[in-house]
Amino acid sequence: MKQKATFFLLGVVLLGLFAGFSKYVKRGGLKKLDFDVTVKLQDNIPSRFDQLMDDGAILADGIVSSVLVLSITAWVCIGTKKKRFFLGAAAIPLAFFVLGVLEIYGKNMLPHPGPPFFMVKQPTTIFPKFHVVQPYSYPSGHAARSTFLGVIVGAIVFKRFASMPQKRKLFIFLIAGYCVFVWVSRIYLGHHWLSDIVGGVLLGASVSLAAVGVLNLLFRGSIMQKQ
After folding, report:
1. What range defines the domain where residue 73 resides?
2. Which of 79, 172, 175, 218 is most buried, judging by how many CB atoms fall within 10 Å of its CB?
3. How many other C-beta atoms lie within 10 A of the C-beta of residue 127?
4. For residue range 152-193, what is the model confidence (pLDDT) as tens digits?
């Protein structure tokens, strides 16, 4: 039981770290580091990668990631006929919903303005199409969603590819690499500060690990196994 509770407890700890880090950001922590990291990335990454950085993060978009979460939930349920497992699998979209609520709360209540307009790469207009204007930028939704998806998919891959260690390592590497790409792209494009990314990563990791933990606690085996 203690081993099964590890994921859930880790999720709770990370959620506490997210709350503490959010208070630190609210007090103005990391302002200089935020600016320095953005300048460093924009100075060292060639501008020809601007479009790739922008388009490459599509999987962490709100609508796309929502579809992916539902697809992953269906994937987890494949091969089982237990009705209670279907109910337990609802922990994944429920956790994703909680993530969205906390993101919206932070961006509307925590006074942390994003990078100034002159640092934004390739702005199409002052008010880009489909852009939702929010008063603050903390936490990064893209960082939170990419981390959430990375942890959930990574957990499934780790278990279901246990008999194929080389493929498992490759998939885990690709998943981690994509998450890092999304995090870096948000800073480079001037959409978020480093502190926004850290907050998003802590939020995404905490709720996804909690979801994995719930399934581990409720069902024999885990989220990653066919039941």
Report:
1. 6-218
2. 175
3. 8
4. 999 888 877 878 889 889 999 999 999 999 999 999 999 999
